[in-house]
Design a protein that fits this description.
Rossmann fold, 2 domains, 8 helices, 17% strand, 5 strands, 180 residues, alpha/beta, Arc Repressor Mutant, subunit A
């Protein structure tokens, strides 16, 4: 097993275009980029190269970045993992941090945002808290995400618990989350 190197960065995302663009930007910034589109590929690359940093998409093709996260950390306990997603919710953010993620960012995130997450000397920016309550649509999205996490990503079990048809749930999950 190779020694950890701060310049190794593992990118795990099933979107080939996004992976290529982010990989190219990180290479220009001096990182040796490793890319994977599945959990199996990510685990193999982590074992072979022992990266110090990883950017992991929450929703992989048929797998979850939340399930991958503890496996990567078991292989390399010093691995700094950023969960990056276009399907954000408070419950998945909390779950990711509990499982060992360094941070959780919503797509689209700039390369500078991603790098700032790994910069331990940077002070976190203060984000404003909305004055009003979240919208009903946002609350629904977060509730669905929480129940989905409780059911380990099982769509059918989640639909049963929510009292809705599985196809309806799948349609709701394919939409982007409501901001507020």
């Amino acid at each position: 097993m190779s020694m950890p190197d701060n310049r190794y960065l593992l990118i795990v995302d099933d979107d080939a275009t996004f992976t290529r663009i982010l990989g190219r930007a990180m290479t220009r910034r001096g990182y040796q980029v490793l890319t994977a589109s599945t959990v199996t590929e990510a685990l193999n690359l982590c074992r072979q190269h022992n990266p110090r940093r990883a950017v992991v998409d929450l929703k992989l093709e048929s797998e979850s970045g939340l399930h991958l996260l503890p496996q990567l950390i078991r292989i390399n306990p010093k691995l700094e993992v950023l969960i990056l997603t276009g399907y954000s919710s408070i419950s998945t953010a909390v779950e990711a941090i509990k499982l060992g993620a360094l941070n959780y960012l919503c797509k689209p995130a700039s390369v500078e945002d991603i790098l700032a997450t790994f910069d331990t000397d940077a002070t976190p920016e203060t984000t404003g808290i909305s004055e009003g309550p979240p919208s009903v649509e946002r609350l629904e999205w977060e509730h669905i995400q929480r129940v989905l996490a409780e059911n380990d990503g099982n769509i059918s079990a989640t639909a049963r618990r929510l009292g809705m048809h599985r196809r309806t749930l799948q349609r709701k999950l394919q939409k982007r989350p409501v901001k507020q």
